[in-house]
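Model it.
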Amino acid sequence: MTGLPQWADITSDEILEALVDSAMQIVRAVQDILEKTPPELMGDIFSDGMYLTGGSVKLYGLDRLIAKKTKLEVHVADDPQNCVARGAGMAIRYIDTVEGENSGQINPLSAVY
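Modeled.
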């Protein structure tokens, strides 16, 4: 009302209610990707499960929601908010190798360096 920041107590249930639509969009996107996944890779996903990365994975219950809707085992990566950046950093040493194999295709990593 004053335009100034104020404290507000909210419950995890209230947060969950606010995020249901977004969480379901994520679930639908995962399901769409799984439908397009080649059978030989789906076999690995079915036996090993999937690993979720990124800070959003820390949303309470998101991993269980995806597991329930996909009927697959779901794991949350260690340090999920940083693992993508760390993996990209490790991949930098292979940029030249990837460029040689994919001649004619643009490598998004090499465009920066």
